[in-house]
Amino acid sequence: QVQLVESGGGLVQAGGSLSVSCAASGRTFSGYTMGWFRQAPGKEREFVAAIRWNGNTAYGDSVKGRFTISRDNAKNTVYLQMVSLKPEDTAVYYCALDLNPLVGVRTISSAYDYWGQGTQVTVSS
Asked: What is the pLDDT of residues 73-96, one digit of tens each?
């Protein structure tokens, strides 16, 4: 059974930094894409970042230059480092796994096969 467990969310002031991580279990993830999405109250789920098995990455326009995604295949863990946080970054952040290794990094939520339970990130102004 695949499980994705996020951790590291919390409350931070605008301009601050925060890192979240996602630990995967149940299978080997080194050959697949892992991504981060977020959802704020009353809004659609939004693509944040993703990293393919070969290290290729993609970022949502609203986080480019501020967020960095990375992965440690030995630990089956993906990380999202966030700097220069803004109040509009407030959301529940979800980790996701795309089991198709044959395509590039995908930015739509329907492409992902497994999801974590989410971790809250709140940025105060």
From this structure: 999 999 999 999 999 999 999 999
Identify whether the C-beta of residue 68 lies closer than 8 Å to the C-beta of residue 78. no
Single out the residue of 42, 36, 34 nearest to residue 60, CA to CA.
36
Determine the Cα–Cα distance for residues 99 and 113; give it in Å rounded to an integer. 6
Residue 95: phi and psi, rounded to 5, are -90, 145
User: Which residue's structure tokens are 């709140």?
Assistant: 122
Residue 13: CB partners within 8 Å, gap ≥ 6?
Answer: 85, 123, 124
Per-residue buried b or exposed e for 96-121, using 16+ beta carbons within 10 Å of the residue's own CB: bbbeeeeeebbbebebbebbbebbeb
- Helix, strand, coil percentages (3-state) for the chain, rounded to 5, are 5, 50, 45
- CA separation for the pair 79, 7 (Å, rounded): 10
Q: What is the CB neighbour count within 10 angstroms for residue 72?
A: 12
Residue 117 near residue 6 (C-beta atoms within 8 A):
yes
